Batch of 3 targets.
Target 1
Amino acid sequence: MKIVQMQKEPIDVTGLLHKSGTVEDGAILTFIGTARKNSMGREVHYLHYDVYEDMAMRELDKIVKHAVETWPLTNCIVIHRYGRVNIGEASVFIAVSVKHREEGFAALRYIIDTIKKTVPIWKKEHYADGSVWVSERP
Amino acid sequence: MYIMNIHIKTFASVRDICGFDNITMELPDGASVKDAVSCLSEKNPELGTKIDILLFAINEEYRAVDARLQDNDVLAIFPPVSGG
């Protein structure tokens, strides 16, 4: 099973975890990126993610396709938020189900590292007194 | 000379600099991504100063700054991505 999606709504982490695994596999590995309260010494009120949605879906699809071709993943779920993400909420959820953990760790790291390099999504941190695009921060 | 219509999309800080999120511009046949950015930089000089760090996609595929454009291409211009 593959699930790849971009969504504005909060991610149902618990619901996704319940459907991430299979009885054939010995490991479910997850990465959950969350919006943290402090960044470079400033208190963050919330995040806003801009997205080039059609291209982001294409890039996410490429990443997941490569991952399932490279490692023997039974399930692979990748969900990324856009729009406003409140502090403590998940901005990205990745889960892979696999027979053995080593392959799962490798796949998981590849997926999150590549998302951060290639998927056209931009994070803006909002503070009490302004906001900054993370990609523009010195 | 043949004129191409190029549909420009901007995102994140590039949209802030340009003041629009999409626009259609006319460029001469054979123009490159760099030519499009130079044209936009006439009104938005800050864009030109960032050309070395910007990323470009033509019809949703990453392309280099010297890539040639074709009529009705969608050219997206944006800063380094920061998802996750």
Note: The radius of gyration of chain A is 16 Å.
Target 2
Amino acid sequence: MTEQILEAQSIVKKFGGLTAVNNVSLSVGAGDIVGLIGPNGAGKTTFFNCITGMETRTAGTIQYKGKPLPTRPDAVTVAGVARTFQNIRLFPNMTALENVLVGTHCRTKVNAVSAVLRGPAFYREERASTARARELLEFVGLRRVESLLAKNLPYGDQRRLEIGRALATEPGLLLLDEPTAGMNPQETQSAMGLVFKIRDQGLSVLVIEHDMRFIFNLCDRVAVLVQGEKLIEGSPAEVQHDPRVVEAYLGTPAP
Amino acid sequence: MNLRQLLDRGTALSRQRLAARVLPVGIAATALTVAGSFTPWATFSGYPGKASLAGFPGGARIFTLLLAIGMVAALLRPVGGRRRAGLLCAAGIVAISLANAWSITGQGGGLVNVAYGVWLAAVGGALGVAAFAALPDDEPVALRPHWPRAVEYALLAGVVGLGLYAVVVALAIGEPSRFLSYLVFLGFAVSAASAVGAMALLPKLYNRHQPVALGLILLAGIAFPFTQNGNATWLRVAATIGTLTVAAIGLNIVVGLAGLLDLGYIAFFGVGAYVGGIFSGAGRSSIHVHLPFLVVMLLAALIAGTFGLIIGAPTLRLRGDYLAIVTLAFGEIFRIVANNLDGTAGPNVTRGPNGISGIPDLKIGALDIGAPHTVFGVDLPYFANYYFLELLMLVIVMVIFSRLNASRIGRAWVAIREDETAAAAMGINTIKLKLLAFAIGACLAGAAGSMSAHVGTQVSPESFTFIESVLLLAAVVLGGMGTIPGALLGASALAIIPEKLRFLQDKRLLVFGIALILMMRFRPEGIVPNKRRRREFHDETGGGDAMSAAPGGPVAT
């Protein structure tokens, strides 16, 4: 049994009378790639939002590396859990490089006073974060477009940039919300390569996806959410052949 | 040859035929305009610039003459973008002549008072519009200057000098009609220059020689009082502009960088002004304490900043619109409190509607700000001292602004403005950073306010109405959000236009409103946009001049 990075226990999220996430527990081990699948409206993104503090959960506990995870979004990121968004949320009027630099914000320290006074520490830190940001752009394959505005990048590049920006916060766990949505097969293939590369850097990844081939090729374990509840969790092979999963996606065959 | 090719050839031919007529029509237009510029515009002699004289291109007629020269240049030089440049020159001629016709009609009593010179110029301009409209539209050639260093420096110096000259001329013009003509002329001339790509050259030169350019601008700022020949009028206005600009730069941090809508910003300025007045040793102060000005200024900044924290801490947790409403309310509360803290109910702090008057001139150490000087044989009224002091303050505030902007703090502010949720997901403590922007803005307004108390010698509640907040906000938007020249330009327009166009008086707001609407339509990024905003509105392709972020690189100091 590998060491657990993230342990979410009995997460419940209710919107008024609607229970979007019901008693879902999920854990991610160190260096694991875990997939989260389910039909539309199953509560996958809500579950993500509960982890990252974008929504206040109704009940449940979340531990990250053995410590309770904070509830404010920025504090979650500082603790080491970064995310991307289902509908891309880059800073559209900042350049690719600046987008990644914003990601380094929570790992840098210069305050307003030293930003005005500009001692050697300021320049040292700026140089370091710029170098780091360029390194990350290289890593996601966007070094050559670093000076373009994020909104002018092609769709696939925007997805990559979002991942690069999340990596700049130096996370231990990366949450990807549909990283290949809207991509063609080649782009999906290269996105898969990118996720493997990220795992090889020692990060754990939790990924929501609808592309089943992507999920089953990529993940060590897969959990299936249906109507806010966890149906099954297991290896890709187990999940793939489970009749309940097929039923959840396609419905029961007519008698 | 199929039909399509035939049609193409037909349109090409007719275009050629039209283009062949551009030159004669354009020359006729120019001739008419020049004739109009040298012939009388008014039948009575009271109209400014001796408009009734023939053979003398004074008054507004000098501007139509200059635009006619621009038109000829666009006709004869086959540069890219000349269609738009020529159109703008011609339209400027029409605008100036018609505006003057209207004004002459008003002053003379009837349309009969408009002499034939105006109509000649107007017809010339209209003909010019027709001629240039027939030219094909082409893009200006992007100039990539690589001249010897000395030439580029000289060019920068020339531009800065021309700018100073333009300001001095603007201030020297007394008559409203001529001033308006001048403004219209400047507007159209600068647009025409930018149509042929000349204005795009300036940012390039500026970026390449930033320290030199900034030094030249500062020099022009220092030179300004020496152009006034001891006349205090405009130096007094300039001293007012100085404090307003400092406040506008503060507001620019709040609105332009962090994207927080503050509708009660003038209240922080007012807090500073009251602190400045109360501790100045003024005869009509509520307490008789006289502290050194630098202490008072710090105190004013601190107190205003504290108010900023008090207002901001609860409201910045919420999103967008709530802040606007709370700041709007704060502005009103401040004014009403200032009106009522006169001792009848509660303590006597502000002396109510009477305000604090008789605020003495500043004394900083051995420096008596209230004393006039003579430097290099030029008399400098005592307002020049305030002006220089504010110039110093402005330099400091600019350094603060641009250095914050080009740091992780500034990036975080822009990120919050762009997408607050995503910014929080990147580990940015959005509440803390918004509060920081809000407090810094309030501090700068407070410091500027304490200075303004001395410039104006009195502080009273009616100077801090909601309208002042709106105008300051309009100045920032008009000038260009997120830039320093923008704030300077906006604040100057705010202070100079009402002085110059007295007849506008109560229509001041109407004019600003119209100006804002026109700006939003034609130049949404403001008069002097920063790089980011220029690209936000005009960078669709993603190509062109790629912006290098160069963090930690040279910054405006």
Note: Chain A touches chain B through 50 residues (CB under 8 Å).
Target 3
Amino acid sequence: MKTSSLFRSLAAAAVVLLLAFPAAAQTADFTTFVSLGDSLTQGVLDGCVVEYGQRDAWPAVIARQAGVSSFELPLIKSHGLGPCMYLKSLTPTFGYYPNDGVPLNATLARPYNNLAVSGFNTHDVVATNPTTAAGGIAYLTLRGQGTALQQAAALKPSFVMVWIGANDIFSAITSATTIECPNPAVPGCTLTNMASINADLDTIFSTLKAAQGGTAKGVAMTLANGLKIPFATTVSPILGTNPANGQPIFALSNVGCPTSVPVCPVPPGSMLTLVAAQYLQAGYGIPCAILSPTDPRQANCNKPLPDNYSVNPSTGAVSPGVVLTPPEQAAILQKSIDITAAIKTKAAAYGYKVFDMTSWFDDFVANGRSWGGLTATAAYLAGGLFSYDGAHLSSLGEAVLATDLIAFINANFGNSLPEPDMYRYLFNGDTSSGGYPIPPTSGLSPTPDETLSWAAAVFGPDTWLQNLQFFFPDTSPRRSARVSPGGEPAPDVPEVPRNEPDRVN
Amino acid sequence: MLKMKCVRLLAGALLVVAVAAAPRGDAAGFALYEQGARANALGGAFVAQADDPSAMFFNPAGNAFNEKFTLYGGAFVIVRPTADFTGGNPYPGPTSTASMKQSAYWIGNGYGVLPLKPGSINLAVGFWTPAGLGVPWQNPDSFSGRFISQRVDIRQVAISAQISAKLADWIAIGAGPEMRLTDAKLSQNAGALNPFTNRFTDVGHLSMVSEGTPVDWTWNAGLLIKPCDRLRLGVSYHGHVDADLSGTATLYQIGTGYPQFDAAVAAKYPMNKPLPGSLTLQMPAILMFGVSYDLTPTLTVNADANYTYWHVFDETTITIQGLPTKHIEHGFENTWTFRAGLGWQASKDLWLGGGFIYDNTPQPDADTGPLLPDANRTGVTIGAGFQLSKMFRIDVSSLFLWFHERTTKTNEANFNGTYKTFAILPGISIKSTF
């Protein structure tokens, strides 16, 4: 009887202890920390994969804050592979560093810890395993040793973080073209079907859980609303206001035009991608009536901005569309919602914590972040949170994301990971030695007056460019104009702008 | 029987002071309490004693007992041997350290008491410095908090005329209008992201100086009771003022070496020209309670509790033409201060005093930053008075003030770290009796 009583007391004490210290039992162990994803996890910025971007990608920041020195990366030596962009002029125009990046860590015998690959969609994580250098960055990351998922499992990760699915949508944004993929997918489609995504998410989470011995220690991140990135929000379809009637002057495209009318204002509610800025700069999409007779853009005015992507039949080169119509936006947003719901459901079913990236990103782009009197925003170029490609975070943006992920990990796993020190990100651009590369000063060709007059004429004071007003104050009066679309021959499709990647992530 | 009544009253008064002070401490913030060297020697616990002309600040009723024309005045200097900052994550980070300049700030006071009806009604005229703030950071162009504040100087002088009346041998009252004169200087840098380098950089230096001397009015009053031979009780009050300051601000452009960027910045902001600006500073009312008891004919113990209505200092709005209006949320809370002092008339010509102060800061973590890094405070005072002649007396004293180490994690401007400050406030006052 006494023994039984003692046993019961010990059992009760054990239960009390377990109840008292649940957090300690759940603490995340970063000894073998593995991340899976796409360019958003790999650390792509400025349209390239490069060492200084990879070292400041959010998984690398978290590993540093966790004190993990063995978090290995498939580093690409500067000047990187992409090529990497640098800013030549605030118009904006960009230069490109030599596309000469070589692997720095290729002899590592085991898989890398950050197995994210630029351009990967959900299916690529479970299926792609290039075995030759023709596989590009995927080969440099995976080295023919297996798929990203297989290599992650082989590491038997103590903690995993997964952020995948953006590329099941983003090509629809970057090409301004929504083509739902059937099952199986066909070349040229831009929105992956949910059956494929659901199956692949099952494979990803079940495989990782098994590799972790069933502990399912890790975090899955949902999708951000890609329609809120500067690539989609910076350039407005409204070019100005018609002083005669106070109505907005819309950019011109060939979408939704009446029969036999080759060019007309873009539909209300349309968005223009960042690529449209270069078309507009050349005169495409601008009603001739709002340009002075001597304006060099007269050569291309009244020619439409391309709506959807096109393929040059002789060269195979792809020219992106630049007009995201409201139906296209709705299709993209719905796909993002569907994928997010799938990630939440699947990850939670396997026991992984889910970070609500959707809400985080909404707040991130709406409010930015401030430190000691300095404010970084999502504004293109002026804001600091996004890199030059308008789709990927800058190192500062990555550090902000890492900070909030650390807070999430600390709250959900009982860790006490310290926040990153933002000072270097703010005043050196990143944490690399010497800081973010200073661009070559030669080639910064336009004078300030040229820049400002161009900016005032093209971007103006309209609300669509609030983000850029910091750089483009309205220094000249807007020309009076009347919209006079139509009647012009169908324009040639201009050359693909150089900084337009087929996939930005 | 009378003695027993006094002991009970003393116990009751001390209980009131103790209860008042228990939940919180001081009038910290930027209020100043050093208005007379003898009072300062007693830790500022002088509301019930109030037996020199500095009673104009501590308790206007005290001057009613003055039977001769008396002048009293002096100055204090505020020095900070230690005023250091070490950053915390996420910004400005632990490698960011800074100190305040080793500046000395002078604050003055002067009082005169003229008996109108000797032993009954007196007129007092004087000035003192009820508030002041000086936060000058060393190396202002590299200080990590320079985009919030590089330097701030606020000074307020009170001028008052009071009538005090002894209603009976055991009770006196005093009151008067109080004029406040305020000026301020603020400076900080402005930063922006240089898109060519992806670095934040300094693009401007903003300097704002108030002009003219706005006059704001409030009032003060006091009550002093001597219920029995050894015991004195006092209560006094100074009202609050809203100082509406106007002045000129100039935003000087700082070149970045990128002409396009500099041109864009110059086109965006009104650089290098005077801009009209304004701000309002709310100075709180203060209610002071005190008890003084003569332990022996030469040994007196005092205890005070001050309640400062800091809630009025809730927000500062700085308006500068052409620049975004700046709202600084302060969210100060009303606070209590506890003071105690012991005075000993060691000989006919020598008086010695000592005191203790405990202050809780009214400033929440969210507001604690480069503009005003306040903290709870513990102070010790010592002092002496020398009767040089029948006419002249010199009082000297010093306050040694330890600001408790304060680490913020929730600063509103996301500028967090640890502040350590130690200040010394020596002062001297001269009393002339005619």
Note: The mean pLDDT of chain A is 85.
